[in-house]
Amino acid sequence: MKFNEPATTNPIDQLKVVGQPVDRVDGPLKTTGTAPYAMDRHDVVPNQAHGYIIGSAIPKGRIVSMDLSAARAAPGVIAIVNAENAGKLAKGNFNTAKLLAGPRVEHYHQAVAVVVAETFEQARDAAHLVRIKYDRDQGVFDLHAVKNKATAPKGEAAETKIGNFTGAFASSAMRHDGEYTTAHESHSMMEPHASLASWDGDRLTLWTSNQMIAWSKGDVAKTLGIPKDKVHVMSPYIGGGFGSKLFVRADAILAALGARAAKRPVKVSLPRALIPNNTTHRSATIQRVRIGATREGKITAIGHESWSGNLPEGSPENGATQTRALYAGEHRMTSNRVAVMDLPEANAMRAPGEAPGMAVLEIAMDEMAEKLGIDPVQFRILNDTQVVPDNPEKPAGADPQSKDKEKAPHVPHPPFSKRQFVQCLQTGAQRFGWDKRSAQPGKLRDGRWLVGMGVAAAFRDNLLMKSAARVRLDRRGILTVETDMTDIGTGSYTILAQTASEMMGIPIERVRVRLGDSSFPVSCGSGGQWGGNNSAAGVYAACMKLRAAIAQQAGLDPERAIFADGLVRVGERSIPLAQAAGERELVAEDTIEYGDLDKRFHQSTFGAHFVEVGVDAATCEVRVRRMLAVCAAGRIINPKTARSQVIGAMTMGVGAALMEELAVDTRLGYFVNHDLAGYEVPVHADIPHQEVIFLDETDPMSSPMKAKGIAELGICGVAAAIANAVYNATGVRVRDYPITLDKLI
Ligand code: MOS
């Protein structure tokens, strides 16, 4: 189904099930521990052995020798695979560094071998007996030291310029120019990367934990040099991803190689302490924001530059990108630069680009508002825009993650599909009690706590992605949905069941949803907050086809057929769906496609974050006291699961603001705090009262669901709202995340 024109009335608007706070349909499986995660697959194949990965002890250089003799002789050892004996391996499309190093080492803890043994403990013991000699090269580990060597990444719209930024900024009546830094961050999802691999001749079956089934199937095949149709990937339950599982990682490839060598199924999970350096992280950034405005608070010039680091060929953390679209202003410039470094691979983490970009831009907006003597909510409202002020033309095929798009003329200032940013700010200010904030910092006190309030915009793009699904109606009237879409804890099972239930007019209990299997139609997968809207639209498209097939089978006019209460009806005639299916099950499959829709209408989600903090007057300990997010993100398919997504994202924003930082050892070239004892994330006791308001919105330009993404909008801006609240409480402006108490004393 091609969706390229505004949605009019459609079956989804019946709103019996879509839009309801339906409990997770997979909830009982989760709470009873019976949802099988990759490491729980004890029964799917017999005779499973265990692999233990050895990570490189140097960040850059060469493996000189690897002595396997002691390890091979250790109890229970079946096979040891390294680059010397693995056979030819390629690099996956989505990997910057190789998943099995040798002889060259590209980063610390890059896998150099996997030891396969009868038990996990035997594999781990033997791994410690492998003797490796390295030849270490010098490396670059400090972003500040190489910032000036950063370059524009290839194949991306790295820089934009509109008007004459430099001149306009210099002649602005009021100016702000600030430099800010954000930290290296680790996804720290609950379930580690894990895979079970099993070969049947030349066919590989992989039970794994991965957000993007089709990408991972392709990359497993490419890495191992086998045809794609010989790879079967299953990932029906995933214990969190946040972008860490968008791509195939060493667990999957080394489980497959281990299984081939051992001639048995092999299970590999990455130990927690291996994850931050072996897998991907969000790069630290240095950012400079310049804002020029009239005395009345109209932005005349806005410039945002972002520098981050990555391995050679790696992509930047695009901190400046949202500044092209968020606020008005005649003269503008943005640039995203990346410096070559030798830290582990940097890649997407929840709201890549916008999360650190908004964390910085929205402090700068607060600083500018203060200089102007304008309330920060008002300053943002003053600079709203209903068209994109700066829309670069992207080079074709620039982004390996982007979908295939038809060539369409470039629109320099497209309208937003829907933008209710001002309404978010106004609703939030009113509901939060913003009028009680003191414009002057350090004025409010509650016992030993200095109290402050902060606001920030939330903004994150809403990506349109092709997505397919298959639906089957059987003789019992049970509808089964099949798509390779994943549920990373987000609620995909539930919203897809709701969508199918609404479309076919049957109770949700009669819908079965099967996900995360590469034998199902290729969906959009889970990433970039595109999963919910697009996968539901794919199910919508398949159901539209099934409706037509059912009507035809029943001899009813498909145009006039109404699907409700388990019946298909035209006028007086109605037939139970189960009966309509006839003797055989009815099957329909379709793909939602958007053509050039997102070229003509910029697709974004909007919101506002309000935060109240307390700062201990003596110790400078920061406690978040209250948080409110107001979101305008199209139709909310399920307010319960959507709220959970936003609450989770807000919590992650608290981490980014106050705690999270991968500490770099710039001599040895690795992240030191590579476990959950040293890398701090917020826990329940850190999280106070959180509230989420969804504006009543439908977006007819976003998809037939009229919905958008929500899961990453919730983090964008949170850190700045906290930073601004800390400033309001104390009068101390911290421009360097995380805001730990040493920076306030
Ligand atoms: Mo998200 S960082 O694309 O999983």
TrEMBL record:
Q: Which residues form the Aldehyde oxidase/xanthine dehydrogenase a/b hammerhead domain?
A: 32-138
Family matches, as SMART domains: Ald_Xan_dh_C (SM01008)
Recorded hits in InterPro entries, A to Z, give: Ald_Oxase/Xan_DH_a/b, Ald_Oxase/Xan_DH_a/b_sf, Ald_Oxase/xanthine_DH-like, AldOxase/xan_DH_MoCoBD1, AldOxase/xan_DH_MoCoBD2, AldOxase/xan_DH_Mopterin-bd_sf
The protein's name is: Xanthine dehydrogenase YagR molybdenum-binding subunit
A GO term for molecular function: iron ion binding
Q: Where is this region: Disordered?
A: 387-416
Which PANTHER family does the record cross-reference, listed alphabetically? ALDEHYDE OXIDOREDUCTASE MOLYBDENUM-BINDING SUBUNIT PAOC (PTHR11908:SF123), XANTHINE DEHYDROGENASE (PTHR11908)
Name its species. Massilia yuzhufengensis
Q: Which Pfam families match?
A: Ald_Xan_dh_C, MoCoBD_1, MoCoBD_2
